[in-house]
Amino acid sequence: MSEPTTDDDVVVAPTTPGLGDVPAARTPSARPGSRARLAKQVGWYLTLTLLSLIVLFPVWMILVRALSQPIAYLTAGQPPRPVEPEWDVFSRAFRQGDLDRRLLTSAGMTIIIATAQVVTSVLAAYAFAFLRFPFRRLAFMGFMATLMLPIEVTLIANVETIRTLGWFNSFQGLTAPFLAAAFGTFLIRQGFLGIPDDLRDAAELDGYGHLGFLWHVAVPVTRPIIASFTVISFLSAWNQYLWPRSIITREAWDTIQIALPKFASENINQLNLGFAAAIIAALPILAILIFFQRHLIRGLTAGAVKG
Amino acid sequence: MSGVTFDQVTKRFGDVVAVDSMSLEIRDQEFMVLLGPSGCGKSTALRMIAGLETVSEGELRIGDTTVNDVEAKDRDIAMVFQSYALYPHMTVRDNVEVPLKTRSYDVDGDRRKLRKPERADRVAEAARILGLSDLLDRKPGALSGGQRQRVALARAIVRRPEVFLMDEPLSNLDAKLRAQTRVELVELHRQLRTTIIYVTHDQVEAMTMADRIAVMEAGRLQQVGAPRDVYARPANLFVARFIGSPPMNTVDGRVRVDGGRAHVEVGDGRLDVGPRTGVADGDAVVVGIRPEHLRIAEDGVTAHVRAIEWLGHERHVYCDVAGTPVIVRDTDPGEDHAAPGTDVRVQAAPDTVHLFDPSTTERID
Predict the structure, then answer these.
(1) Do B341 and B315 fall into the same domain?
(2) Tens digit of pLDDT for each residue in A131-148?
(3) Which chain A residue's Cα is nearest to B84?
(4) Number of domain units in chain B
(5) What's the DSSP call for residue B6?
(6) Is B86's CB within 8 Å of A196's CB?
(7) Which of B181, B215, B241 lies at the terminal end of a domain, its last residue?
(8) Which residues pair with B264 in a beta bridge?
(9) Per-window interface: B 145-164 vs A, CB < 8 A
(10) pLDDT digit string (tens) for A212-249?
(11) What is the pLDDT of residue B274?
(12) Which end of chain A is more exposed for a tag (fewer CB within 10 A), N or C?
């Protein structure tokens, strides 16, 4: 096997071997356009750095406000750096805000919703992608139509249903309306439709039934898409505010997103505690993103079929 | 091991008839090639054997068992796809092992799932036969096209099925690898001694590998026979024009019978076709002559030379005969018989001239 080469390793060969007129090998510095390419690359990096700074600036400012002593920070004119840092602010926020219980409630709700959404979306997507049944297209269109309904439209009816079922202040109440997701079904169905027909046929001839094909072929092959949806599902479940606010009436069942504004308004003289709590609330999502990042790889189907 | 029988099998997709009343008996241990142009129904026929398409009418048997209603996973067949169809997330070892995990097998008279060491032995044997032993831990993405094709073959042979189906398995390989793999497939067939049904549109593959060829067109079987027979005695004009490269020349003519010998008038000349029983004086026919059987001569039919291709070992002389394009394959390129723009005369031995009925396109003997 030959050594891997880069563009810079390329040597221009004579186009008419044997005629004796061999041009000299070109070095990278002598290649026309190499300087322009370098400038273009530098330009791209500068642009990306600038965009990253714009995205990270609010995060940095929350961190600055969380660490700074509130009065001193206001007196100093709210600079973009910590003023008289209070390093124990996170442990105080965690303790005073009773955040462990809120985080556990949010985590329980999020895990149930995300797990259920991934499972139901995968199964529904498989049915819509691979099974033939009457009114399949119509059923799928109906499914997709629910994407256009914002939560506010169904809020009152859902709250009434949950109240009737006696599920206020419970995990059932927090999660029941979100156990299936039209968006996930759509996204994963698109992934399944990308599986080559030959692969499906080969799996059938190899002896896989529906569940075997789903578990051993379809899910692994579409893993990047399923991972993407899992992240989206986690994120939206964790960040829910309106629904928990509508069906939680006892403080013991407050999720972290409900607890945050309450905690901030209760500590109006210690604003940095509210900012610290917000940072703590964001950490699980950050962890999920970092964990799933390595699963969000492309090109898993490379080599499955020719072309 | 088993043969496969199509008994008046028809396959319809809505109003489209993909396979039309096909009757074909593929013998046990035979290497049968289904040959035809794109859309002729050959892949549909193969997919019906696999169980990937249902049979609309007729009866399909594998061995003595009618399989019309048997699901694909319950048929004892293995298939190699044009696109290889390997599982991209699995290693070569796992790809080859899949059918061994999912199915039950007869082991010493007992039908059961294979144990892990038994599966490992079979995978190792298949890998050895196909030269994959050093690649077992790689994933398909890290293999070349030829290696992927071998993995697909290994996945098929590891099951030791009754019938192998191959759907244009070489068409994604480059010319050199294709030629090499053709030979290897023939050797593999000899080793395995099992029935292989192979679909291709490439007549070279068909001619070089098949025990018998089944030529298909527009959903219908046109001719079945050994490659040599199909080439030497095409059953109709389609087969005559489809088999052979360059294809057979076909020109309109009219029969003249004179003293027991038949001639065919083509343009301003005559071709002696010897004694023929199926024609009468004055019959319109289509004359078929393979390019290698036409020769430039002193007498015969006038041909206007349009172009000459020199290929080193032979020349192709492109002519017009009575307004119809004709190719003369001249295997003696040293001699300069013709030049573009000039008229020559072409001739053929009587036993190399094929006659076809212009209305039915069938062969006339």
Answers:
(1) yes
(2) 999 999 999 999 899 888
(3) A305
(4) 2
(5) E
(6) no
(7) B241
(8) B255, B271
(9) 145, 148, 155
(10) 999 999 999 998 899 989 988 999 999 999 999 999 99
(11) 85
(12) N
Nearest CA in chain B to A307: B83
Residue among B79, B102, B143 whose CB faces A303 most closely: B143
* Model pLDDT, residue B337: 65
Portion 26-55 of B in contact with A at CB < 8 A: 47, 50-52
The residue range of the domain holding B114 is: 4-241
Contact between B87 and A304 using a beta-carbon 8 Å cutoff? yes
Cβ A237 vs Cβ A178: under 8 Å: yes
What are the DSSP calls for A190-250, one per residue?
HHHHTS-HHHHHHHHHHT--HHHHIIIIIHHHTHHHHHHHHHHHHHHHHT--HHHHHH--S
Q: Do B73 and A207 touch (CB under 8 A)?
A: yes
Q: What mean pLDDT comes out for the span B201-209?
A: 94
Question: Measured between beta carbons, which residues in chain A are less than 8 angstroms from residue B72?
Answer: 201, 204-205
Residue-level pLDDT at B26? 97
Cα maximum dimension of chain A: 93
Contacts of B87 in chain A (CB under 8 A): 199, 203, 216-217, 220-221, 304
Check whether residue B206 and residue B262 sit in a common domain: no
In a domain, B210, yes or no: yes
Position B91 scores a pLDDT of 97
User: Rounded to a whole number, what is the distance in Å from the CA of B56 to chain A's nearest CA?
Assistant: 18
Task: Give the rounded distance of the alpha carbon of B322 from its chain centre.
Answer: 32
User: Could you give the CA distance from residue B82 to residue B72 in angstroms, rounded to a whole number?
Assistant: 18
Looking at the predicted structure, is the pLDDT value of residue A201 above 80? yes
Query: At residue A176, what is the residue type?
Result: A
- Taking the alpha carbons at both ends of chain B, their separation in whole angstroms is 38
Backbone phi and psi for residue B349, each to the nearest 5 degrees, phi listed first: -65, 140
Hey, of A1, A300, A306, which one would you mutate to test binding to chain B, going by the most B CBs within 10 A of its CB?
Answer: A306
Which of A198, A300, A302 has its CB closest to that of B85?
A198
Q: Are residues B294 and B152 in the same domain?
A: no
Residue B77 to chain A, least CA–CA distance (Å): 8
Same domain membership, residue B257 and residue B293: yes
| Residue % of chain B over a pLDDT of 90 | 77
Residues B302 and B325 in one domain: yes
Q: Are residues B262 and B151 in the same domain?
A: no
What ipTM was assigned to the predicted interfaces of this complex?
0.84
Residue B266 lies in a domain: yes
Residue A302, pLDDT above cutoff 60: no
Say if the Cβ atoms of A205 and B78 lie within 8 Å.
yes
Which residues numbered 275-304 in B keep a CB inside 8 Å of some CB on A?
A: none
Domain identity same for B235 and B254: no
Q: Cβ(B249)–Cβ(B74) under 8 Å?
A: no
Q: Indicate if B96 and B163 belong to the same structural domain.
A: yes
CATH number at residue B265: 2.40.50.140
A295 touches chain B (CB under 8 A): no
What pLDDT score does B299 carry?
Answer: 85
- pLDDT bracket for residue A305 (50, 70, 90): low
Query: Above 70 in pLDDT, residue A121?
Result: yes
For A218, nearest residue in chain B (alpha carbons) = B87
Residue B195: phi and psi, rounded to 5, are: -75, 130
In this structure, are residues B351 and B275 in contact, taking their beta carbons and an 8 Å threshold?
A: no
Q: A202 and B143: CB-CB below 8 Å?
A: no
CATH code of the domain occupying A89-300: 1.10.3720.10
